[in-house]
Task: structure prediction
Amino acid sequence: MKISLHWLRDYIELPEEANTVAQHLTGSGLEVESVEPFERVRGGLAGVVVGEVLTCVPHPNADKLRKTTVDVGAATPLEIVCGAPNVAAGQKVLVALVGTTIYPTEGEPITLKKAKIRGEASEGMICAEDELGLGKSHAGILVLQTELPNGTPAADYFDLRSDEVFEIGLTPNRADAASHIGVARDLRALLQRPIRTPDTSAFVVQNQDYPVSIKVENTEACPRYAGVTISGVTVAPSPEWLQQRLKAIGLSPINNIVDISNYVLHEMGQPLHTFDADKIQGRQVIVTTLPEGTPFVSLDGQTRSLSALDLVIADGNRRPMCLAGVFGGVDSGITAQTRNVFLECAYFSPEYIRRSSLKHGLKTDASFRFERGVDPNQTVEALKRAALLIQELAGGTISMDVLDLYPQPIKATEVTLKYAHINRLIGVAIPHAQIQEILQSLDIQLLQTTAEELIVAVPPYRVDVQREADVIEEILRIYGYDNVPLHPHASADYLAKFPVVDANKLQQRLAHGLVTQGFLEIMTNTLTAPRYADAVAGLERDKRVYILNKLSEELEVMRQTPLFSGLEAIAYNINRRQKDLRFFEFGKAYHRNPEADAEASVDQKYRQQTLLSLWLTGNSTAESWQNPTKALSFHEAAGVVVRLLEQLNLQGQLNTQDAPTDLFEYGLTWMYRKHPVAKLGLVKKSLAKQLDIKQEVWYAELDWDYLSAKYRPEVQYQEVAKFPEVRRDLSLVLDKHVSYREIEALAYSKERKLLKQMNVFDVYEGDKLDTGKKAYAISFILQDEQQTLTDKVIDKTMQKLMQAFEEQLGAFIRK
Result:
C-alpha cells in the first residue's frame, strides 16, 4: 500500500522528515518497507530556468534555424540556436542550461553540452513541452506568461513540490489503515496530535429533479447502501493537483468523476462507485443476486458468468450494472458523454466480496478493502465528500436527498479489560491514566471504569479488535514495544549435552547444493485438484484430506504427492518457451487414516509428511557450437539423488528395488533398513498429458522427515589403503530383462572382501546381437587392504564372478 507524505500532511501536522515518520509507523505495526521520492516531472526540471529572448535573427547557414540571445539571469546572455518556428524576441521561455539532463516524453534522457550547430555556438536549449516531459506537444517552444525574474528555476514556476511515498506492508488484519486518514489515525495516537478530517457541512441538496430509488433485496450481503445523484456534470480531465496525488500512489488518472471516487477511496478507505444515471433503467437501483449463469460485461470488456451468490447492483430491468464491491460494468460506466451521475457508497459483507473476487479472478482496490472490512458508519460521510468534490471539479447540482438504507446498524464491540491482565501480558505496569488516554486516541470509547477494570466500546471499523487480548495489543503498540524493558535475568543460553541436528540448517545446506547443480527452488500450493489423484492407483480416495470450505474445484483436496504441483510449474514454464528445467521443493503431503474412529485424535486421523521433491526435464546441457544438446537421462537424475543421500551419510547402507509403476514408466526406489527413503522415475506419459506436457519429466521424492531424523553429522574416516587397487573389465551379453542391479547384487554376494567398486562404462543394444539381448561393459575394482594382489588371486576372483554370471544370469562372456 502506498501513502503519500504530502497528502498525509493534509490530515495531521507532520514537520518531521519522511524517515522519522516511517520509524513511527513501523514501530506501531504499519511496517514501512521503503520510502521512495516522487517527482511530478521526471528529473524535477533541475537545470531548467525561466529565460527571456533578447534577440532573434535568422541563422546564417540554415533557413529553418534561428540564432538567439537569451537572458537567464547570468552576467551575460547565452547564445542559443533554436529551430522552433514560434521563437521571437521578447518572449519568456524555458531554457535548459549546459550540463542539464532533460527527460523527453518519448525517448531517452538527453544531457546538454555546449555545441556548434551549423557553425554557430549554442549554449543551451529553448525547450518545447515534450522535450521537458511536460506533455506531448512539439508544435513549438513553450512561451510563458509570467513576471518571474530571469533565472528562476522552472520547478518554482510550475510549483513542482517534491513528495515522498511510503510503501507500507499492510497486514491483512489492518484494513482500518488502508487509507491516508487511517494512517493519520495511528499517527494521532502515537504523536498525540489532532487530525483534520474532510468537512462535509457544505453538502446541500439543491433540488429533487433526478431521483433514483434504491431497493436492497439481500441485506445479509449488503447491510448498508446509500446513494445520491448529481445532475448536469461535465466529464473532463482532473485538475493537476488531483492527477498528481493519484500518480504519486501509482494510479493512472482517467477523468474527474472516476478520479474523485479513487481519491476518496485512498483518502478515507471507503470504496465508492459512479454510474451514468441516464443508463439506469427505470431510475431504480436493486442490490440483489441473480440466477446462476447470468451474463455480465465488466469494464474490461469481458463477459462473465455470474454465480447465484454474486452480489450485483442491477437496474429496474434487473440487468447487472456492477459486480458489487469488485468491478463495474461497461454498460453503466462513466464516459465523456455522461451528464448525470448516480453515486453509490455501501458496506458489503466481506464474505460475499471475497467469494466473488476469487471466483472471477478480480482483485481491485475496492475488493481489497471490502473483503477485509470497511467502516460501516462512514458511508454517508464518504458519499457527501465525493459529491462535494464532483460539484467542485465537474459542476452539476445535487438532485435528490441522500437515500441511506441501514436497517440494522452495526454496533461497537464491548470488551472488558482488567488492568492486571494488561500488566501481565505487556510485562510492565502502565499508569491507568495513560492506558485510558491511549484507548481514547484510538477511538475506543470508555464505557465504564473502575480501579480493577475497564469496559470499552471498539468501533466497527476495527474488525481485528474483538477480545481483551486484542485491545491489550493495541495499547502495547502505541505505548511502544521498545519501552518494555527486558528482564535482567532473561536468557536464551543453554549447554547442550550432545550435538543437536538443526533440520533447518541441514535443509538449507542441501538446497544450496541443489542450486549449484542448476536447480531452482519452487514453492507450490498444497491444495490441489482431486482429478490428479484419480489418475494414480496408489493414491486411494479414502485417504484424501478434503477441504470443507473449498475455494474452488481446483483446490478441493490436500495433495498426497507434490508431483502434480511441480508439473503445473513445468507446464507454465514450457508454455513460455522455457523447456530445460530443474526444480526442487521442500513441501508437505497429506493423508487421512480411513481406519481411525470418530474419537481418535487429530494426529491419529491425519498424517502430514515433509518431502524433498525434484523435477528434471529437457536437455542436460545448453545448446553450444562445441557440444550437441543431449536430453536428460535416468542416470543423470539418479546421480542427483545419490549425491543427496551421500550428503546425509547414508551411502553404502542402501539397496534398491523397482519404483512403483502407478507414477512412473520405470524407476528406482532406495531402501534404508527396509524403509523407502527415495524414489525416482520417468513420469508416466498419461500423467504428464493431463497438463499437456509432451516432453519427458523425471521426478524424485525423498522422505525428508525420515532422512533428516537419521542424519548424523559425524564424518566417517577410513585410512588410505597402503596397497594398490586393480581394475579388470568384462563384457557380458545378457537377456534384456536382466538389470544391472541384479549383476551388481550377485557380484557383491560372491566377493565381499576384495570387490570394492563396480561401474558400467558401456551398454550396447543393436543388430550385432541376437534379438532380445544386450551387452554390458563393466569394470571391477579389486583391492586387498592387507597385501598386494597377485595375478593368481585376481584371476581366481574374476573366474568366480564369471562363473556366477554364466550360471545364474545366463550371461555370455566375451573373453
